[in-house]
Amino acid sequence: MGTRFGLAIVAALGARFRVAVLGKYGLEQAPVLPRAMNLPERYAAEAARITCPVLFHVQLDDDLFPLAGQYALFDRLGSERKELLTYPGPHHVTDPAAEIRWREFVRELL
After folding, report:
1. How many domains does one find in the chain?
2. Tell me, what's the pLDDT at 1?
3. Which of 27, 38, 66, 104 has the least C-beta neighbours within 10 A?
C-alpha cells in the first residue's frame, strides 16, 4: 500500500521530497482487489506531478498489479530522473537485493 498512498504524498509535497522509492503498483489491478480502489486516472495524474528522482520497483510476476499497468505508471512519472528496478516473483515477494538497491538509491541522492 506504500505506493497507493505514497504517490499522492510525493506528488502533493513536490520539491520538499528529494527522492522517492515507489513501485509494486500500477494503473491496472487484478480482479481480486476492490473495484473502489481502482483509480487509474487519479494515480496517472499524481505520477505526472512527481518531480523528484524516483526508483520504481516492478515485480515481473505480480499477481495483484499486471505488468503493463506497472510500466504505464512508471512511464507517467514526471521525474527527469527515474529508474526502473525489476525482479521476478509475485507481489508479496521482495528480493533482499531489491531492498539493498532501495537504500542505495536514497543514499546516493541525499
Report:
1. 1
2. 67
3. 104
pLDDT at 95: 94
Express each pLDDT in 52-65 by its tens digit: 999 999 999 999 99
The C-alpha atoms of residue 109 and residue 33 are separated, in whole angstroms, by 34
Place of cell 521476478: 88
Domain span at residue 58 reads 2-109
Q: What is the mean pLDDT of residues 68-73?
A: 98
Helix axis angle, 40-48 to 2-13, nearest 10°: 40
